[in-house]
Amino acid sequence: MNKSKDRAPLIISKERFDGLWGLFSRHPFIITAVICVYLTGFGYQNNMLLKYFTEFTAAAVIGFCLYRCIRRLLDRRRSKALAVGIFTLECAVSIVMVKLYLESDNRAELVYVLGAGAVCLLALLCICDFIHYGKGYLRRLAVMTISLWGLCVRLGYVLETPIVRRQNDVHQFGGPDGHSAYIEYIAKNLSFPDVDPTTVWQFYHPPLHHSICAVWLRLLKLIDIPYDVACESLQAVSLFCSLSCIILFYKLLRFFRLKGLSLSVPFAIVVFHPSLVILSGSINNDIMSVTFILASVYMTARWYKEPCFKNIIKLAFCIGLGMMTKLSAGLVAPAVAVVFLIVLIKNRSRFKSLMLQFLAFGGVCAPLGLWWGIRNLIRFGTPLTYVPSLPITSGQYIGDIPTRTRLFDFSLYQFSDVFEQWTVKTYQEFNPTVAFLKNSLFGEHMRALTFEGFLIVYPKTLFWVAMALAVISFISLVAVQFSRGNRPVKLMLLILEATLLTSYYKFCFEYPFICTMNFRYIVPCLFIGAAAIGLVMKKLDAKGNAVCRISQVAVTLLSAVMCVMSFLTYFVLISSLS
User: Fold this and answer.
1) Percent of the chain at pLDDT above 90?
2) Residue 174 gets which letter from DSSP?
3) Cα separation of 577 and 419, whole Å?
4) Angstrom distance (rounded) from CA 279 to CA 302
5) Which of 116, 179, 218, 456 has the most CB atoms less than 10 A away?
6) Does 17 score more than 80 pLDDT?
7) pLDDT of 300 higher than 70
């Protein structure tokens, strides 16, 4: 027993792991930002820049390996020959990886396969240590492994996806309109567009995301990064937001005190869900808006537990900045207002203090969220809720299909192809429910031509498993409303989901075009549904009977299949370069 307690760790010591976990827990967003800038922020299409970056990374890795080797040589419990052998192997692997990466025709494949494989191998090696340390470390190990694997998937997708491929309303840099022109206008003029936003496509959006991207372009110009490379590097902003969503979702799960499978399963669903992978390579304002909505949900939960000025001001900034990114972020307001009301009723003795908090909240949130719309209303007469529309002569127009058909027609032919249909050669998607299920997994641009022969099994399996999980998540969200603990926060999730879906269906019928039925408008529903699955699994674990255990295993297997099929589907996509 004593020998087991005193043995040297195989991979990492308890103290070192605690230190790394503590460092990341204290500064998750700063560390994530550094990682994103380091990996994608300077655009490595430039061959010399790529060469220097890769060689510097390899030198840093070898230096770290040398440091570990010396530490092992000085440790009396370690085998000196084994320490030298491991160091030699690490150096050889690093050199081979550099050569492969620099000479590869598709670097995204290497990141997908070798990066994810290395993460899993390291996790398996660490298990021996963490079993020795206890279950708490296994939970942290699972989270770190899933997160690093998710980073590899996103990085591979970003490396393969240029800023002109699989984008929404971005258009070409140097063009007259779209998100790209919006960013360029701010970068070149150092001011917001002084034009009627109804006359230029996408210029009606609030400017926060576009301003951040414009500042980034200006900074890269100062260090003589080629302009096309700088534009490509804007994906670093989207990658950061996508990874920030993972961090915020983990914090939300821990708020509900989830652990074990009830934490790992919903966390893995979110990390591997294709919608967040697609958005990590998109340079419009969608993913930043989603990040602020999720931050608002988490801060509302925090404020519910501790209703103080500090938390409500943070919440006000989250909602205000979210609306300054995209006005639809304000859809979180009704759900937050319900939590405010419940806390006010439960704490009537603190009425004056809470009202002062609400006034401070409004004083921060309202100006941040509404100033752009009010500016355009005063200067150009643009309605606050203005959204541009395509003409009814567009090939996407589906307004001639009856409302009843669009809502309730689930004919089987709509599921013969799991990808969104846009042409009259097959049919044009018209059912908003079917469309967002397809779009959430494959976006607007993925087609069956990419998956020849047996490969079509991957997206088809992904679709049906994801649809099963979507049904389970909706049932779970309703079921958790009847369980004890944090009921106002659970109610907030239900109201937010209802608000988002109501807005989505209303939007689909007010603007009856295929592109309107896009999952990017309701991405927060993914987090809500996954969290509900985790909460139900926690209740099943507490009951512990045979039916509950079987249900847990079934949901876990479905989630595992979804994650694997998502990985394989997008590996085929980046391999085909389509």
Assistant:
1) 59
2) T
3) 18
4) 27
5) 179
6) no
7) yes
**In the block, residue with structure tokens 């927060």:** 524
User: Highest mean pLDDT: which of 13-22, 71-80, 398-407?
Assistant: 398-407
| Largest interatomic CA distance in the chain | 79
Residues 272 and 153 sit within 8 Å (Cβ to Cβ): yes
Residue 576, C-beta contacts closer than 8 angstroms, at least 6 positions apart: 450
What size, in residues, is the chain? 578
pTM above 0.85, yes or no: yes
Give the Cβ contact number of residue 416 at 10 Å. 10
As given in the structure block, the two tokens for residue 141 are 């190990």
Structure tokens at 189: 């003029």
Long-range contacts of 157-160 (CB under 8 A, 24+ apart): 157/108, 157/277, 157/278, 157/280, 157/281, 157/570, 157/574, 158/40, 158/235, 158/238, 158/239, 158/280, 158/281, 159/40, 159/107, 159/108, 159/111, 159/574, 160/106, 160/108, 160/573, 160/574, 160/577
Which of 326, 291, 323 is closest to 28 using CA atoms? Answer: 291
Structure tokens at 94: 């690093």
Residue 279's H or E segment, with its range, is helix 274-280
CA dist 238 and 243 (Å) reads: 9
Q: 271: closest CA among 147, 94, 144? A: 147
DSSP state of 172: -
Tell me if 350 sits within 8 A of 311, measured CB to CB: no
Q: Helix or strand or coil: residue 397?
A: strand
d(CA 254, CA 122): 25
